[in-house]
Amino acid sequence: SAQLDAFARRGAPPTLGRAALMPALTHEPISQLKAQLRALQEERERQNDREIMAAFRAAKASADEAVEAELRASAGRLMGRAQLKDLQGTTAAKCQRAFEDKLSQYSFMQNLPQYKAHKTLVRTDSYDGKMARFVAANDQKLSIHFNTAVERCVAS
C-alpha cells in the first residue's frame, strides 16, 4: 500500500517539454480484454469442434473400409442363412472395432455427446445399408441359382 501510494504521487515537474500523460482510452481495458478473450476462446472451441469432427469422419471411414473389406472377401460366394448370419455378426463386430480403434487414441471421445450419434450413424450408414445391399444381392444370386437348377431338372 505504501509503495502504491508512492507510485501514485506526482513527481518533480519535467525540465524539458511537457509532462507525459496516461493515454485516453475509448473503451475500458477490462471490458476490451474480456471481449478479446471471449473471441479467442470461441475460436479455439470452433477449432476443437473441427478437429473432433475430423476424428469422427476418420473413424467412420475406417469402419466403412472394414465393412467393405469383409463383404468383398465374401462377394463371390453363395451363402445360406447360417453363413449370412455369421457374416453379419463378424462384419458388425469388425465395423464397430474399426470405429472404436480409430477413436481410442482420444480417451475423451466416448464421453462426448456426439459419440452416440456418430456410433449410430456408422451403424446405419457403414453397416446396415451395405449389409442390406449384400443380402439382397445374395438372395438374388440364390434365386437365380435355384431357378437354373429347377429348369435343368425339368428339362432332363
Tell me, rounded to a whole number, the average pLDDT. 89
Count, helices = 4
In one word, what is the shape?
rod-shaped
Radius of gyration: 34 Å
Biggest β-sheet: count, sense, barrel? none
Helix- and strand-based class? mainly alpha
What portion of the residues fall into strands of 2 or more residues? under 5%
Helix fraction, binned, reads over 70%
Cα end-to-end separation: 113 Å
Summarize the structure.
With 156 residues, the protein is mostly helical.
Explain how this protein is built.
With 156 residues, this protein is mainly alpha-helical. Helices cover 76% and strands 0% of the residues. The protein has 4 helices and no strands. It has helices spanning 2-8, 29-73, 81-103, 113-155. The chain is rod-shaped and about 125 Å long.
